[in-house]
Specification:
Belongs to the derlin family. This protein is mostly helical. The chain has helices at residues 2-10, 14-31, 44-49, 55-58, 68-88, 93-114, 121-124, 131-145, 164-174, 179-203, 212-215; strands at residues 150-153, 157-160. It has a two-stranded antiparallel ribbon with strand order 1-2. A hairpin with a 3-residue loop joins strand 1 and strand 2.
Amino acid sequence: MAQAVEEWYKQMPIITRSYLTAAILTTIGCSLDIISPYDLYLNPKLVLKQYQIWRIMTNFLYFRKLDLDFLFHMFFLARYCKLLEENTFRRKSADFFYMLLFGATFLTGIVLLGGMIPYFSASFAKFIFLSNSLTFMMVYVWSKQNPFIHMSFLGLFTFTAAYLPWVLIGFSVLLGSSAWVDLLGVIAGHAYYFLGDVYPRMTGRRPLRTPSIIQSLFADEPVVAARPAAVRFAAPAVDDAPPR
């Protein structure tokens, strides 16, 4: 069993494996009081005034308690992040990383802007960890890329992948969780899907083209050694004069 888990872990693509490992270690570390969640959550004042920049990233790594909800989100992360990286973004690790960066930036912007709106600031102030939202964004993007795949929910009923986000939101509500966290992921996922797929087909323009600095961080294409150029030797000179 342990060997099978190890093989499954090693076969994960690099970005999925790195994010899953960081998320599990961070959440377990907080549960064991090795790390304090108060040092990880998104706090605009601490980021801007005390330059605690790491909070912009660490709030995407903590998945709160080690409960059923945590297991579900780890499953979503391991499955749909892996499927996206292996299929839609196959040999495009830079583009996949840029998608996650776009999602994290978009979600952070929503929370920060929402915190400035009167009568809504208190509600947006509750979104101090956006890890669940980023995970749900991956689920939404995968469902838009594979809308006709047939799925089954706990063996109770079947549906196509296009309805997967809404089925999961309904299940989350039944478990007593707030739907707003997942809905933020839907909004971020739809923004990426529109700008990355729909808008380019409409206009021929790609606003989400991966920057070259990110592309330089990943080497997706196999390195092919250049063959030495064929050396041709000149043929010996031939006397044009007719033989005598």
